[in-house]
Amino acid sequence: MRLSLFTDYSLRVLIQAALRHPDRVTIDEVANAYGISRNHLIKVINELGRAGFLVTHRGRSGGFTLARSAERIFLSEVVRFGEDGQPVVECFDPVCNKCVITPACKMKGMIAEAMRAFFDVLGKYTIADVCAKPEALLRHLGLTVP
Predict the structure, then answer these.
(1) What are phi and psi of 71, to 5 degrees?
(2) Domain range holding 65?
(3) How many domains does the chain have?
(4) 97: Cβ–Cβ under 8 A, 6 or more apart, which residues?
(5) How far apart are CA 97 and CA 127, in angstroms?
(6) How far apart are CA 69 and CA 80, in angstroms?
């Protein structure tokens, strides 16, 4: 399974916000730290704000912060949010499914079982777990270690 860039960037934004908490983070800081397009990040951050993961601040002293503690943001929740509506394989989408073997194929059930296991594992971990060794992460992001 491959996660979308939206989900990947969402996780990175939340990690950087957790590492910098309670300070505000700017789009430019994230773009520079990860080498990601600022335009891509604008959409990601706006969507994370609408979904209640971030609090966004406009204007000259703008930026964003976590909307809740990193201990309460589960990886499974972020990945489900980012991948919402994206079928893993065609037969998961009843509107667009054109696979002729769907009625007889057992693979859909197998993949569904694997997806449940995937989300069960991600449901055990939070953004705080990812940030358990902040010094190393900050160093790799080119940020100063407090």
Answers:
(1) -70, -15
(2) 5-85+126-140
(3) 1
(4) 90, 91
(5) 35
(6) 19
